[in-house]
Design a protein that fits this description.
Layout (H helix, E strand, L loop, with lengths): L1 E5 L2 E6 L2 E5 L5 E4 L46 H11 L3 H15 L8 E4 L4 H14 L3 E6 L6 H12 L5 E4 L3 H15 L4 H18 L3 E4 L24 E2 L8 E2 L2 E2 L19 E2 H7 L2 E4 H4 L4 H12 L23 H12 L3 H11 L5 H11 L8 H8 L3 H10 L6 E4 L2 E4 L12
Parallel strand pairs: 5-6, 6-7, 8-13, 9-12
Antiparallel strand pairs: 1-2, 2-3, 3-4, 10-11, 14-15
Amino acid sequence: MTCRDDTAIHTVEKDGRTYVDGPSGGLLEVKYGLPPAVAFCRRCVISNQRPSSSVEFKHTKDSKKTTIHFDEDGICDACRYAEQKNHGVDWEQRRAWLSELCDRYRSRNGSYDCLVPGSGGKDSIYAAMILKNDYDMHPLTVTWAPHLYTDVGWHNHQAWIHTGGFDNFLFTPDGQIHRKLTQQAFRNLLHPFQPFIFGQKNYAPKMALKMGIPLVFYGENEAEYGNAVKDNARATRDRSYFASAIQSNETLYFGGVPMEELRSHGILPGQMDPYMPADADALADAEVDVHYLGYYLNWVPQECYYYSSEHVGFLANEDRTEGTYSKYNSIDDKTDPYHYWTTLVKFGIGRATYDASQEIRNEHITREEGVALVNRYDQEFPRKYFPEFLDYLDMCEDEFFEIADSFRSPHLWKKTAGVWQLRHCVTNPGDVDA
């Protein structure tokens, strides 16, 4: 057993696990490799517990998370990049680079010259429409289907294709296999959205290979929200997120289970092809590059929403989205609310925190307003689609919460009078009567 001082927090390493001293004596475990000392950005409302995007097919229950970086002034990388983006990037030059890129690939006969993945949400509509209307490109759109389409999500997907005017490949994976993988991801990782993320990251590059389209455009870089800020210095996506040298002996994990063990869950290796990463060597040979359109254009989610509403009739939710105050973000999948809620359980960061942090960085609300919104909505449980989600997971409510509660990190959560409470919150960074 070893001890160390981490940001003025006394930590203990024991049996491969990290603990911090509890306020009333005893030790509190710190799960997932998270920072033992909880801190909140002084500019937005994100905490230093926010996990960065990771390579999903390497994700196991023992994986340690890389988290958002705070500088010596207590400002997160996402806010520092927003500062640069709003005041230090020559967007005219970036747009010129985009024009040059499109000039190299643009077809003259209307055939596909780029590929845009998406669900028909505000961002994918904006990306495809801008490339078509402003840069005279001819995008093929591709969609990896949500787990369970919402009515408004399906409307928006159809509006994207029919009103926007695009060809689209909609791939819907085997429902039984997708459901089994989701169940395993929930039980082993508390990450029910993982099967969708596999396709979200992998499907477009694989379709680019199949269709012979070397130019792929995603929307904004994940680094805008807290991945390593250095990732924003490049226009292209790191292939490690969606590709692998298939011939290698690397063990791939799905739902926290090694691929070879999926047989015990009734899934054969050949049935996993849709979820497999793209072949890195084939991508390199075909010179397929995945670009972030947000590198070239100043990406503002609200502006994408307004643009998509005006040009194709994109609809927001009629009511406020549970767990937050917005209506237009991530609304196409009935499992989406539980992706955000499980993030709250594991990392103490809910949906309102993500929305408010983004809007603070884009100078739409103040930090004080963001704090109030987080306090009001962040811990709200999403009830609307809960019966359907339980049915999809094939479990009862008691089992659902028993599994979820087992993933709470004790350094973040305490239970008082039968109610789970965060030990740290953005309005009071210290213990809440812990």
